[in-house]
Amino acid sequence: MSRLGAVLRLELVLQRRYRFLHAAVLSGALWLALLLPMPPDLRSAAEPYVIIGDLTIVGFFFVAGAVFFEKDERTLDAVVASPARFGEYLAAKVLVLTTVSVVIAVFVATATHGVGYHVPSLLAGAALGTVLMLLLGFVSALPFTSVSDWFMPAVLPIAVFNLPILAYAGVWETPLLYAVPTYGPLLFLGAAFDQVTLVPWQVGYGLAYPVLWAASLWWLARRWFDRFLIAKTGDA
Hints:
The structure is a single chain. By secondary structure, this protein is an all-alpha fold. The protein has one domain. Helices cover 80% and strands 0% of the residues. It has ten helices and no strands. Pfam families: FLQE3_permease.
């Protein structure tokens, strides 16, 4: 088995141990309970907000929670000492949790709309949005030793990354919000339910800009992992 395969297997075991997979299923059920009683038109309008909310939970909060559990159980110390590379460790988290998030998005959309939505737009929006939230959550958790220390400072980055909701809802329409990388995924989610008609430049922006941000967050995650975990492990 390759190192990545072994790390993926470990990640699945950890996710089950921490009950995050159970929480993800419960989250999907709760979103269905919210959406199904709505009239079809209102349901379509609410769907992008629901999926953004869910990928924020699965992406940002689940990965941060996993980091703190692993710190408490000294799993991260074992990762540092193992042959596994940082890229394989983080890739396993991104692959597992992004898959969970996308499956929930497809399940909720299909349960509420049948096949009456644009699948490629939904997949693009859910996958890109989850990856961004995952990397943001991972980076935000690294400098802190406990959830209580992390929670209040984490409000700022998650608030910034959710600012495009204001533009999408028509509350604050400004081109400045295109600087926030989650705007592209949100536009794709709107297009999936015929709430937004994307022009070609928006499609290119929605695909390329989040990927650029994800690469930057990955680089920052590598630097901060070295600074806040590997360096401290070496000093211990």
